[in-house]
Design a protein that fits this description.
The protein is mostly beta strands and about 130 residues long. The protein is about 0% helix and about 45% strand. The strands form 2 sheets. Strands 2, 4, 5, 6, 9, 10 and 11 form a 7-stranded mixed sheet that branches. It has a 4-stranded antiparallel sheet with strand order 1-3-8-7, with no helix packed on it.
């Protein structure tokens, strides 16, 4: 059974930093593109960042570009954990953050739409106070 477990959320002041983690289990995730999405109260779930299966390519939403960094650990004997380093946080970053995974057959393919992702975590709350 595929599971994605997020952690690292919390309450932080504006300008602060948090690092989210996503630990996949149930299969090897080196053939999966991974992404982070977020959903604020009353809003649609939106794309934040994505990383290719090798980690060599990344893509960010304009709203987080330059502040957030997505990375992954594909080394052997690791959990293939995916990270989202969030710096210079703003109150508008407040949301539940979700990790997602999509099986891809090419390292050059980097999906960024919600509908393209097959597996989702339960989410972790990030709250940024002003």
């Amino acid at each position: 059974q595929v599971q994605l477990v997020e952690s690292g959320g919390g309450l932080v002041q504006a300008g602060g930093s948090l690092r989210l983690s996503c630990a996949p289990s149930g299969r090897t995730f080196t053939n999966y593109a991974m992404a982070w999405f977020r959903q604020a109260p009353g809003k649609e779930r939106e794309f934040v960042a994505a990383i290719s299966r090798s980690g060599g390519s990344t893509f960010y939403a304009d709203s987080v570009k330059g502040r957030f960094t997505i990375s992954r650990d594909n080394a052997k004997n690791t959990e293939n954990t995916v990270y989202l380093q969030m710096n210079s946080l703003k109150p508008e970053d407040t949301a539940v953050y979700y990790c997602a995974a999509d099986l891809v057959y090419s390292d050059s393919y980097l999906p960024i739409k919600r509908i393209q992702y097959d597996y989702w975590g339960q989410g972790t709350q990030v709250t940024v106070s002003s």
